[in-house]
Design brief:
Pfam families: Abhydrolase_1. Keywords: Hydrolase. With about 280 residues, this protein is an alpha/beta fold. It has one domain: Rossmann fold (3-Layer(aba) Sandwich), CATH 3.40.50. The protein is about 40% helix and about 15% strand. It contains twelve helices and eight strands. An eight-stranded mixed beta sheet has the order 1-2-4-3-5-6-7-8, sandwiched between helices. The longest helix has 19 residues. The radius of gyration is 17 Å and the shape is globular. The chain starts with a strand and ends with a helix.
Length: about 280
């Protein structure tokens, strides 16, 4: 393990855990996806720590952060991040997010524009049609949460080797470096985070319109398991000219894990221009 800082801060009424590389470069705050943890950014951090100060937080309910029984809305996650930025005195920060974490990052930028100087969104939950949970009845939403909770519980009954074996079978293109933190994250996550999937805000268009900083939207191949479609990309750029777009056609939803070097190249180029 690298000699990264390992600590927690109080934010939004709970303790949020993070790892931090330190260094004199600009701060990047990295927000992981659903059921991951902060160390799932380790491979990116190793590549970029010489030039940036990377803060990899564990979102509420994940990793070593507090695990309340409720409070898993998009706004809850965003308010946590805003509190971390303030608690660590990061000033205006570049936010980097994946999936649910990318949606969180965009929400922070929209709600707290004074805190964010740049935004990198890896396949956020921005859909061209409302998701199942948006129009579902309360009974159907409850059933969806129960099903996802049960998936988490079943996975946590497996040992680390079994979780990794399953992950390698499902994600054969991932580098071996990805799995230690990914397995750890699955063991740490609270089943209560299942509520996240039925409480995500569906009004991404409004969120996108409120972003005031340079933004890089990174998408994968529409024929794979991606969320952001070409239609959404076109809508987002029409809504907000600050949104740039890069497509990495060999990747699915886990873009950086499936197209690592092209992802890094896109991120570095964006940062070089937006932080200049």
């Amino acid at each position: 393990m690298e000699e990264w800082q390992n600590a927690s801060v109080e934010s939004n009424g709970i303790n949020i855990h993070y790892h931090r590389t330190g260094g004199k470069g600009p701060a990047l705050l990295l927000i992981h996806g659903f059921t991951d943890n902060g160390l799932c950014w380790s491979r990116v951090a190793r590549e970029m720590q010489a030039h940036y100060d990377l803060v990899m937080l564990d979102s509420r309910g994940h990793g070593l952060s507090d695990k309340p029984h409720q409070g898993y809305s998009t706004d809850d996650y965003a308010d946590d991040v805003a509190g971390v930025i303030a608690a660590l005195n990061l000033g205006t920060t570049v936010l980097v997010g994946h999936s649910v974490g990318a949606t969180t990052a965009a929400t922070v930028a929209a709600k707290y524009p004074q805190l964010v100087r740049g935004l990198i969104l890896e396949d956020p939950i921005w859909r061209d049609q409302p998701g199942q949970s948006d129009s579902a009845s309360p009974e159907k939403k409850a059933a969806m949460v129960t099903a996802v909770r049960q998936q988490i519980v079943v996975q946590q009954q497996m040992n680390a080797q079994q979780i990794e074996t399953s992950g390698r079978e499902n994600c054969p293109t991932w580098d071996a470096e990805e799995f230690p933190a990914w397995v750890q994250a699955k063991q740490q996550v609270s089943p209560d985070v299942a509520a996240t999937l039925v409480s995500l805000r569906g009004d991404w268009q409004h969120m996108a319109s409120e972003i005031q900083c340079p933004t890089l939207l990174i998408t994968g191949n529409p024929d794979k398991d991606v969320v952001v479609s070409p239609t959404v990309v076109a809508q987002a750029q029409a809504i907000n000219p600050l949104i740039q777009h890069t497509q990495l056609a060999s990747a699915g939803h886990n873009i950086r894990r499936e197209s690592f070097q092209p992802y890094l190249a896109a991120v570095r180029q964006f940062l070089a221009c937006s932080l200049a």
